[in-house]
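Please check both lines for our workbook:

___
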Amino acid sequence: MNGFNKSLAAPIQSKPESHTRRKPPRSAIIVGLLFGAFAALTAAQETGMPSKVSRAAADTSSVSGTWKGVYFIYPNLMGMELNLSTTSGGAISGILKYYPAVKLRSAFGDPKQGSYRLSGQYDERSRSFLLTPGAWIEKPDMAGAVAPIAGVLDARANEVAGIFEFPSAPNPVFFILAPETGADKLIAEITGSAYPAPLPRQSPNLSRQDNVRLALQRQLEQIKSMPHPPGSEQSYKALQESLEKRLAALPGGDVNPTVTWAPPPVDRLLDWASRLKQEMPALDLRNTVMEKIYLPARNLFADDYFKDHFGLTYEEMDTAQRKAVAGAFSQHGRELFGYDFLARPFQNAGDFGAPDITVSIRWQGIVRSWARDLQTSFPAMPAEVNSFSEMNVAEAAANTELPFLWPSEKEKFNSALTGARTRLADPVLTLLADQLITTANGNAGARELAAWRARQMNILQYASTTEQAKLQQRIDARLDQVLGQLVASDVRSLATLGHGIDAVVAGNRWYQQVEKSYDFALTRPPILVAIRQFDQDRAKNLTEAKPAIIAQLDAAAQDAQVKSILDNYLRCPSDSASEVAAAIRQHADQRLAVIQHQQLLGLFSDYEKSLMIPPESGHLNLSRADTKHIPQPEELRLALLRGMAFGTGKVLGPHTAKVSTLFGGGSMIVTISDTKKGRYAYVTERQSWMVLYQVDMHFSLPDHDALWDADPNLRRGAQMAVDTVNATAALLSQEDNIQEFRLYDDGWGVPDLRQQGAAGAGLEALLKGMMKQR
């Protein structure tokens, strides 16, 4: 059942062969375009734009009132009543009622009736509306989903055509409505075509002679429509001529003249059907699900086109004539190969059958008339902003309805729309530019001028290149004029910045304020002139402030302090090219090198530093080492930190190190707060010390880590593991450990930890290399 139920708001029952996926509803797009256009109209009125009433705007057509009609949703022809009322601003509300239009026996059961509220928006200019469903009034058992409806009003015929946009339906559900006074005739005509009377049979009210004539007519029609076996053409022709002679010999006229009607020859049938491929050459009739073929094929039954090939409209056909056409498709199956599905509307009352086609024909007629009426209004639209807003709304409605007509019709509508926009673009843009140039003042006005092109891109794309350039030149000239007036006070304030380091700080604030105030126009000439003046003063102020800034750098004891000083003073773009700023940065680099060297030396004990050659180089000359020197607690701590960080980690300070885990995939911070030395012994053959010690260690996760930051669950899991390790470390802090300690050229170390770290780093490098080769 594809999720449908026989008693849905528009009682939907799916077709057994339905396997297509419903396109996403366009309701949200339509609402956005509609309300966007309304907003544009309101904005135009508020800004005082001229507001002549165009032909479309003057149309007083309204959808207020009671409308009745039908829609087909497999397998039922449903009646529909829509009671609508509109208010100022285009708001619309109403009640939708539905019920079975005819009583039919169906395996799906009898369809139910129901009603619910709707509300939405109606646009008088495009005579289009969009309604969204609200609360139920009468809800049938097993009622399904309700759906938005989008529709248009044909003002000439005073009829409405629209679409139920059920999100799960493979195709839209079309409905047609007429005013209550004329709706009965509409419903009767559609019902008569959807369920035509059966073929006439012998009637007791006819004479024996008329019943004989009727029987001969029926036999003759069957002979004409039935397929002939190969080689039997002559015998069938003789039989047909015999029946025709017997019929002609009877006195009186035909009992049913339409029985003598013959379907078009096969070449006309082929010409009629082939428009489907002409309009949609990419459509593969053999490998496309039928619902996608049925949708555009409905256009073949439009009155004018159909009558041109069949001599009468589809609705004018009686049962005999439709059966004759179905027989012709069967008879000429080879010539009409691929189009055999078109026999279905002539012999079937279900999906793509008579009810479906009849509703679709009427729907097409209303939508085509509505589209033609709009197209004729485009050339008469005046050169005003409202005209573009009206066309935007019309385009939104057309994007909902016209895709179900022929592609050439949608293209023709869009071409007319483009022609009107092209005609109006230059004069409308001139009006907009004139108004903006006249009213733009202050920073807000300058912003509007700078954003003019982006805001009017919808119109600019249709304007001539010459007019665009001319208008942009005028806009830019006014923008520079307003900017010059605004930035003049900023330029005057340069004289009040002071001198030296105070002037540098004040200059930072000045540039930050200018950058914030004129972020939309930093490349415009008036702003560039002001910034050039600032840059000239900036070089002088930096020169005066240089000694004080360098003194602060020399007093800095950490990397972060040096970087903070640079950030505090050298914050303007011109500082990157200033010679004095470059000299300050060079001095900062030198100070950073000193601080980093001092930090490096802080990772060595006094004894280790005494062995360095050259002094403070970080490299120990082991030939100067005293084998009697026993590693002290400080050196035990440093050796443990170096060992745990060896390979892919890093010693961060005298008490902390970053330790890699999971082959470098994550990291932890280890802190050793205290180390106690116990007994010890020197191992001559290994030139190392065996030391009994106690250590107080604590582990934590770094604030930022690629692995732990990838997923909150990973960080939570890692934190749980760290908590467990810390609990264990706390218990073991008073336990004795025995470890081998050895003096290396980079300081005291633990051989076992260094080997493990080197192995881990080697394995990590190997794994990374293998991953790069994949």
